[in-house]
UniProtKB/TrEMBL annotation:
TPR repeats lie at residues 159-192, 348-381. Residues 47-56 have a biased composition (Polar residues). SMART domains: TPR (SM00028). This is Tetratricopeptide repeat. GO terms for cellular component: cytoplasm. It comes from the Eukaryota. InterPro entries: TPR-like_helical_dom_sf (IPR011990), TPR_rpt (IPR019734), TTL1-4 (IPR044534). Residues 26-120, 137-156 are annotated as: Disordered. The keyword Cell inner membrane does not apply. Keywords: TPR repeat. It comes from Arabidopsis suecica. Pfam families: TPR_16. Residues 34-46, 83-105, 146-156 have a biased composition (Basic and acidic residues).
Length: 480
């Protein structure tokens, strides 16, 4: 006898899709979701099996492996197995696809909290999507935005990595960034001489030679046989004019020392010797020429060479050039660093030359300060003490003369300025001030003479040029 066949609401309305699903959900007979409807030819063979509620419509329930209690079926009677969700199978027929869609909608509409809890399993699987656990973010390691390639750099990078990053920046010409990485490597491992040597290279490229010398010496303290550091320190000492030290380190540099390096040192030694001889004999043109040779041979950052050149220019009455050269040679002047590298005697000589330059350009207070420092470092030097007395004399003359001039005592001011010029006959500032006093005394020709001499010493002295023009105007008016 044929079994009665149940007809679903979707079949009555002729719609197996969304509309049928809606009507079935309204049916009072429906209490819980049923299995998706299978093919008609396989339904009769599977009628003995109990229906199972499926929480995940895409995963089939596990079939029983016990085949003893089930009758054997032929190949034509076996139900067609559905593909698993994570496998690639040919496209299903439109009928089976619609049925699976209806079953999925039914399961979603009647889902309970138990279904939701099973959706995420312990292994992170949601349907056919595997959710990979995200790595935990460490909050104890601070990260900052580094300039290095615009990438975040961890502060806990190992020193070798920091050194490599510094080397890359150095090769690109970014010496400031390279120095930052080398210093961070030193902070992580201060006992490695390579980091100190690389820091020295970056400082040399930045023009900070005294600091570079300190870094090289630290590298050699950690490893006295470090040949690369010996070579680097030797080249530094040559540039600073310390030729004896440079030759000593070149002898320790091994394979890094070339013949041309020794020849450079010998050439600078000869130039410095001739400079000292010219200075003693007061042949300032010869001294100036030899300082230029020494700079061309490699002593391009030597404070001693620049001080000799400055002194020669001062005696040749080229005050503006002397001031410019001195500023270039001592632009990073630090007394403690200079004493450490050059010693007390040379540092005192540099300060004495600086005092002479400041006197020449009218910076009398700075001249007094520099001369006092020089006398403190080398109190037995008669030359240093003479410069100190000269600085005090011209500073006092300008101060006293200005007070008299402001009190309209022009004759007394002129006398005081003249006394100051006896200590320094070629001081442009005192000459210009005396010209102002003589102008007030109607001594226009004398004022013109003082202004002309001041302009020969300092051609850019605008006040002297203006006063000379006023004096010429007065002379011209008196002739009319």
């Amino acid at each position: 006898m044929a079994k009665s066949k149940k007809i679903s609401t979707g079949q009555i309305f002729g719609c197996e899709s969304l509309l049928g699903c809606i009507f079935q959900s309204w049916s009072p007979r429906r209490r819980k979701p049923s299995l998706p409807e299978k093919d008609h030819r396989a339904k009769d063979n599977l009628s003995s099996k109990s229906s199972t509620t499926v929480t995940n419509p895409k995963i089939l329930p596990r079939k029983s492996t016990d085949t003893s209690s089930q009758p054997k079926k032929s190949d034509s009677q076996k139900p067609q197995q559905k593909p698993k969700p994570d496998e690639n199978h040919p496209r299903k027929s439109s009928e089976s696809a619609r049925k699976s869609s209806d079953s999925a909608r039914k399961s979603i509409s009647s889902g309970s909290s138990r279904t939701e809890s099973k959706r995420f399993s312990l292994n992170g699987v949601m349907g056919n999507i595997i959710v990979k656990p995200q790595p935990a973010v460490k909050t104890d390691v601070t990260q900052t935005k580094s300039r290095w390639e615009g990438k975040p750099v961890n502060h806990r990078l190992d020193p070798e990595t920091l050194k490599k990053m510094g080397n890359e920046e150095y090769c690109r010409g970014r010496f400031g960034q390279a120095l930052v990485f080398y210093e961070r490597a030193i902070s992580a491992d201060p006992k490695t001489p390579t980091y100190w040597s690389n820091k020295s290279a970056a400082l040399i490229s930045l023009g900070r030679l005294l600091e570079a010398s300190d870094a090289c010496e630290e590298a050699l303290r950690l490893n006295p046989t470090y040949e690369r550091a010996h070579q680097r320190l030797a080249s530094l000492q040559l540039r600073l004019g310390e030729v004896e030290k440079a030759l000593c380190h070149y002898n320790e540099a091994g394979k890094y020392t070339e013949t041309k390096h020794i020849e450079q040192v010998e050439d600078v030694v000869k130039c410095l010797r001739r400079c000292d001889e010219a200075r003693r004999s007061k042949e300032w043109n010869v001294a100036l020429k030899e300082t230029l040779f020494a700079i061309s041979y490699g002593a391009d950052s030597s404070p001693r060479v620049y001080a000799l050149q400055t002194e020669a220019l001062l005696h040749l009455q080229r005050h503006e050039e002397a001031y410019s050269v001195y500023q270039k040679g001592t632009k990073r002047f630090d007394i403690d660093s200079f004493i450490k590298i050059f010693g007390l005697s040379l540092t005192s000589y540099l300060l004495m030359v600086g005092a002479q330059v400041y006197i020449a350009v009218g910076r009398f207070e700075d001249a007094v300060t520099a001369s006092r420092q020089a006398a403190r470092l080398d109190p037995s030097s008669e030359e240093v003490n003479a410069v100190a007395r000269k600085a005090r004399a011209v500073a006092s003359a300008r101060l006293s003369g200005n007070l008299l001039f402001n009190a309209s005592k022009f004759e007394g001011a002129s006398v005081v300025y003249t006394e100051g010029l006896e200590n320094d006959p070629y001081n442009a500032l005192l000459l210009c001030n005396r010209a102002a006093s003589r102008f007030k005394l109607d001594l226009f020709e004398k004022a013109i003479e003082d202004c002309t001499l001041a302009l020969s010493l300092q051609p850019s002295y605008r006040k002297a040029r203006r006063r000379r023009a006023d004096s010429y105007a007065k002379v011209f008016k008196s002739l009319i």
